[in-house]
Design brief:
Helices cover 29% and strands 22% of the residues. By secondary structure, the chain is of the alpha/beta class. Strand 4, helix 3 and strand 5 form a beta-alpha-beta unit. The N and C termini lie far apart (44 Å). The structure holds NADP nicotinamide-adenine-dinucleotide phosphate. NADP nicotinamide-adenine-dinucleotide phosphate (NAP) binds next to helix 1.
Length: 235
């Protein structure tokens, strides 16, 4: 089952992890395109008065269900973006919250877009080697974080019913400029000619909302910045 949010205004997108680097930018992007936005986290905040703030702990499945199902005062979500993380990483929390959202979304007929980790991608030079296991991209101190992302993808893949897509960011994801451009790949890390693998959180948010408006066929996708002219190889 594939349910597109549709490019027209007035659809409802819920973002769990609303105040985070990714979540806050997805909220801004979706709101700017005229979608209704439900901002879900334990302490949600937004400067946009049109954004509906809903305090929800992802560990509380009843509260998540209630938030996504809508109420007398707001419509049920058409799609939910999962963009949570803890510091330090807590794999049990991450996979548990993911399963909770997938279960509820399957019951309610809501599409799920998980913003996960780059570690779950294949290495560009060795398709058999996950980025999480590749020291070129993941030094020892980040291995646990990368492994949690892989476990989160496996949780999605093991779910029997939900309509999900797992978006792995490139190796470097940080606040920056919204160019509106990006490259889209599937399950292999995208790098540019100089070997960089990166995108701004703003452009990742563009890709998230694009994917909800026009779902692709793949369940595991990635995106990266469009290479600058000076990073292209000489012709
Ligand atoms: N290169 C990469 O692979 C890469 C880089 C960066 C991020 N990411 C991924 O992108 C996703 C989003 O990351 P981020 O950087 O945006 O994270 P972040 O800035 O740390 O924000 C995390 C969000 O999760 C929410 N949260 C934490 N525990 C929660 C709970 N129990 N219930 C409800 N909400 C909870 C927090 O809100 P409250 O505290 O208000 O609840 C916050 O809004 C994560 O999956 C992360 O791993 C990947």
């Amino acid at each position: 089952m594939e349910t597109a949010v549709g490019p027209s205004a007035g659809r409802t997108i819920a973002v769990l992890g609303a105040g985070g680097m990714v979540g806050s930018r997805v909220i801004a992007e979706a709101g700017a395109r005229g979608h209704e936005v439900l901002a879900l986290s334990r302490k949600p905040a937004s400067e946009d008065p049109k954004v509906r703030l809903i305090a929800v702990d992802a560990n509380d499945s009843g509260a998540v269900r209630e938030a996504l199902a809508g109420s007398a005062s707001y419509a049920a979500a058409d799609a939910v973006v999962l963009a949570v993380r803890t510091n330090p990483v807590d794999q049990e929390f991450l996979t548990g919250a993911t399963r909770t959202v997938l279960d509820i979304a399957a019951q309610l007929g809501i599409r799920v877009l998980v913003v996960g980790g780059a570690g779950a991608l294949r290495s560009p030079c060795d398709q058999e080697l996950l980025v999480a296991d590749n020291p070129e991209y993941v030094p020892a101190e980040f291995k646990t974080v990368a492994a949690a992302g892989v476990a989160q993808l496996r949780t999605c893949q093991a779910h029997p019913d939900a309509d999900w897509v797992y978006l792995s960011p490139p190796a470097l994801l940080e606040p920056g400029e919204r160019t509106g451009d990006y490259r889209r790949g599937t399950d292999t890390l995208l790098t540019d000619a100089a070997g960089h693998s990166r995108i701004s959180a703003e452009d990742l948010a563009v890709a998230v909302v694009d994917e909800l408006e026009n779902p692709g066929r793949e369940r595991h996708i990635t995106v990266a910045a469009v290479a600058h002219e000076d990073e292209r190889p000489p012709v």
